[in-house]
Design brief:
The structure holds two protein chains of two kinds. Chain A is of the alpha/beta class. Chain A has twelve helices and 13 strands. In chain A, helix 1 runs antiparallel to helix 7 and helix 3 runs parallel beside helix 4. The radius of gyration of chain B is 14 Å and the shape is globular. In chain B, strands 1-2-3 form a three-stranded antiparallel beta sheet. Chain B is of the alpha+beta class. The relative contact order of chain B is 0.21. The chains are: A alpha/beta, B alpha+beta. At the A-B interface, helix 8, helix 10 and helix 12 of A face strand 1, strand 2, strand 3, helix 2 and helix 5 of B.
């Protein structure tokens, strides 16, 4: 028997790995020093721990230790990258190239800059798999472009963008390339040299580390990336991010990166197997299920599907002992269905019917079997209750109906 | 978001799910909402033409748990009522019974609209003296 509830929402957050917690614990109590205290052993101890973490993080993405800037999380890293670069280079240009399926931390940072007259932003479309076209990036670049920001892999549909190609274009054109790699780091190989990434955001709690800590990689050479700090204070982190370092969090982030790197190949294969099992099981048991995102270029633990004729929130309610998430309007604060799913150009109804499964380190094959069975049964029950399913089975084209909307 | 016990009960054990047989006499059908908005309710009422009393009700709903619960509750609420009484049902009664939070009030509005749409469909057929038309035509007319 599997233990309920089952957590299968690992794109939202992940539990802290026990090994990460163990590494962190001493830094709450005995080793509590301020890493900026330069003249006693408490400070040295903390600084040492921070430096070790920097090395662990840098190692995972093929960067140098000093290129890692600690932040409170990926939202801060994204804000610092986008706003910091635009502000620093305001005399050079004001144009940003990004894409419509970026995380809100990027999109809203861009909108703030637009609103304040500090930037002009090109939001590139994506194809039906949610992938941005590198050629579109190239064409969007103008002599005013100072930043390209494209995520490594999408948090909803798992699609992995052609980052190395985009990085190559950015380098050719001499434009700074920022990549929000929150979902990719620790899951798939990310290499800032191979991919020509100049700035990279990452987060602790997506990789079995703690919440409230993240990092921004800032390239130091070829080119040296400059940005204006967004927080004033003691000039920590080479002046780019003031504030006493969150030593425990940083130790956790470092350990989480070390583990992710060491186990990536094997864990990636295991996740892919589980994902394929879940996908095959669902598609076998149900008709009219549609995959959202790229069929192969996607994160191993991600499965995003739309169950036609069933509204997402009602499905979540029916499988309340399984934690997954939906692109349905009813599950969002804005009452709008997912902008990521809508950007794929699929029917709006299917956006309301989308469910994201995020398989992670602690999920088992037994859990996948349980989820497959539970979800399939609930979809069948809700379809029996769905007027749309009934109409479709009668051969009525739902698009031909003149719906009377509220 | 936590659901009220009554919403969970109606969602888990929906009352009167289904459709009347095609061409069944004295059935009025109301279809409200739209798939792209994430809510479609189909409410069917079997109404006695002699006295205007709702004798049976069935529903099918595509929507969130609160939408399903609202339509399920409405089928119970209207049974045995005269159509004039049923026309007077306000969405606030559904909100109160099911303890719907503010973001779910639109579900109750949709359920109120469904009652009105079904009754007006029935009336139309009474005037025409014809059979109920297939469901999708109703949505067209609405």
């Amino acid at each position: 028997m599997v233990k309920l509830p089952i957590y299968m929402d690992n794109h939202a957050t992940t539990p802290v790995d026990r090994r990460v917690l163990e590494a962190m614990l001493p830094y709450f109590t005995e080793k509590f020093g301020n890493a900026a205290s330069r003249n006693h052993s408490f400070g040295w101890e903390a600084e040492e721990a921070v430096d070790r973490a920097r090395g662990q993080i840098a190692g995972l993405i093929n960067a140098k230790s000093k290129e890692i800037i600690f932040t409170s999380g990926a939202t801060e890293s994204d804000n610092l990258a986008v706003k910091g670069v635009l502000e620093f280079h305001k005399d050079k240009g004001n144009h940003i190239v990004t894409c419509v399926t970026e995380h809100k931390a990027i999109l809203d940072s861009c909108r703030t800059l637009e609103r304040n007259g500090k930037a002009v932003v090109t939001y590139l479309p994506v194809d039906k798999y949610g992938m941005v076209d590198p050629d579109g990036v190239r064409k969007a670049i103008t002599d005013k472009t100072v930043l390209i920001t494209i995520m490594y892999a999408n948090n909803e549909i798992g699609t992995i963008h052609p980052i190395a190609q985009i990085g190559k274009i950015a380098k050719e054109k001499g434009v700074i390339f920022h990549c929000d790699a929150v979902q990719a780091v620790g899951k798939i190989p990310v290499d800032v040299e191979r991919d020509n990434i100049d700035l990279l955001s990452m987060s602790g709690h997506k990789i079995y580390g703690p919440k409230g800590v993240g990092a921004l990689y800032v390239r130091s050479k070829g080119p040296r990336v400059r940005l204006t700090p967004q927080m004033d204070g003691g000039g920590h982190e080479r002046g780019m991010r003031s504030g006493t370092l969150n030593v425990t969090g940083i130790v956790g982030l470092g350990k989480a990166c070390e583990l992710a790197g060491a186990e990536m190949a094997e864990e990636g294969r295991r996740l892919l197997e589980l994902r394929n099992k879940l996908q095959a099981g669902i598609f076998e048991r149900l008709d009219e299920v549609y995959l959202n995102g790229h069929p192969t270029d996607r994160l191993p633990g991600n499965l995003n599907v739309s169950f036609a004729y069933v509204e997402g929130e009602s499905l979540l309610m029916g499988i309340s002992d399984i934690a997954v998430s939906s692109g349905s309007a009813c599950t969002s604060a804005t009452l709008e269905p997912s902008y990521v799913i809508r950007a794929l150009g699929i029917d709006e109804e299917l956006a309301h019917s989308s469910i994201r499964f995020g398989i992670g380190r602690f999920n088992t094959p037994e859990e996948v079997d349980f989820v497959t069975d539970r979800v399939s049964r609930e979809v069948k029950r809700l379809r029996e209750m769905s007027p749309l399913y009934e109409m479709a089975k009668e051969g009525i084209d739902l698009k031909s109906v003149n719906w009377k909307a509220e | 978001m936590a659901y009220s016990e009554k919403v969970i009960d109606h969602y888990s054990n929906p009352r009167n799910v289904g459709s009347f047989a095609k061409g069944e006499d004295n059935v009025g059908t109301g279809i409200v909402g739209a798939p792209e908005c994430g809510d479609v309710m189909k409410l069917q009422l079997k109404i006695n033409p002699a006295n205007g009393v709702i004798e049976d009700a069935k529903f099918k709903t595509f929507g969130c748990g609160s939408a399903i619960a609202s339509s399920s509750y409405v089928t119970e609420l209207v049974k045995g009522k005269h159509i004039e009484e049923a026309m007077a049902i306000k969405n606030s009664a559904i909100v109160k019974e099911l303890n719907l939070p503010p973001v779910k009030i639109h579900c109750s509005v949709l359920a109120e609209d469904a009652i009105k749409a079904a009754i007006s469909d029935w009336k139309q057929h009474q005037e025409q003296g014809g059979e109920a038309a297939p469901a999708q035509k109703k949505a067209d007319q609405a």
